[in-house]
Amino acid sequence: MSSQDQLKALRVRIDSLDEKLLELISERARCAEEVARVKMSSLKPGESPVFYRPEREAWVLKHIMEINKGPLGNEEVARLFREIMSSCLALEYPLKVAYLGPEGTFTQAAALKHFGHAVISLPMAAIDEVFREVVAGAVNFGVVPVENSTEGAVNHTLDSFLEHNLVICGEVELRIHHHLLVGENTRTDKISRIYSHAQSLAQCRKWLDAHYPSVERVALSSNADAARRVKSEWNSAAIAGDMAAQLYGLTKLAEKIEDRPDNSTRFLIIGNQEVPPIGDDKTSIIVSMNNKPGALHALLMPFYENGIDLTRIETRPSRCGKWTYVFFIDFVGHCHDPLVKSVLERLSQEVVALKVLGSYPKAVL
Ligand SMILES: C=C(O[C@@H]1C=C(C(=O)O)C=C[C@H]1O)C(=O)O
Hints:
Radius of gyration: 24 Å
Bound molecules: the ligand C=C(O[C@@H]1C=C(C(=O)O)C=C[C@H]1O)C(=O)O
Number of strands: 15
Structural class: alpha/beta
Largest sheet: 6 strands, mixed
Pathway: Amino-acid biosynthesis; L-phenylalanine biosynthesis; phenylpyruvate from prephenate: step 1/1; Metabolic intermediate biosynthesis; prephenate biosynthesis; prephenate from chorismate: step 1/1
Helix content: 40-55%
Domain Chorismate mutase: 1-96
Strand content: 25-35%
Distance between the termini: 42 Å
Subcellular location: Cytoplasm
Organism: Azorhizophilus paspali (Azotobacter paspali)
InterPro entries: ACT-like_dom_sf, ACT_dom, Chor_mutase/pphenate_deHydtase, Chorismate_II_sf, CM_dom_sf, CM_II_prokaryot, G/b/e-P-prot_chorismate_mutase, Preph_deHydtase
């Protein structure tokens, strides 16, 4: 058989597989519609339906990755199923998700990575606004950055948890690649200003010192904002990611200029709904305590004694009294696990206040 004939035969096979795939996806979507009907019909008076189930979605993705035999990689198949689920859920109920904007930020990329592209995503001007939109019920969930592997904590997010009573329903991790971007009005040998978010400037500090040591660095509220600005301005450049570059049609002068190749940011999904365990969960708590000798030791001891893996501990001013602090602690396990329950009970006897911010599935993608 000639290679032309081989190609023709293979394409006929692909067409027929696509038709079967479409049938299966449609059947799955009809199932999701049926799930919505069952959820609605089993409501008790005054109860509102819970359409989005993060623990179920995390389980579906993990399961797909476990049974995947290739040739597509686990991340790739999970991404495809992420989008199928996103579309199925949108049939049940289109989710509204607020994120730290403007359009083109890494937080938007994180929101779409977590929820898929079938949600209604709404940009907010500040982290606090994301929290307030969720509290007000104007959106179902919010997405905010919480820590970067190079630059550390995003303090605005931690402080917002002290002010608002919201639940952490999930986490997303995103590899952060920064590029040096210019618009068509900029002569590349005449760059006099580089705009970006302060965190992004810091993540590219060494590269900037080596390549643009004497160019002014200007911190703006987001790197998407920086990209928007250089689109029309003369002789300025922005540091931003792929989404912002595409959105504003900018040219990449230099790619992947972050100082650390593993530069990643972790984002949190905030909402009002507690998430049941899937067996691979994390919990976030806030603890405040009196400053006395051995206080931190007493705080950490129960985790150590019960073999609970602390993934993060962060200190912030408590905002009620000078030199008093609160600790943000993340650890592996769910607050319904008996072991975690007993540790939290013991901790509550040692500390002034303890608040569970939420237990949620570990990031799958
Ligand atoms: C179908 C359901 O509703 C939603 C859609 C899901 C899906 O498409 O698999 C999974 C969980 C929910 O977010 C369900 O609860 O099972």
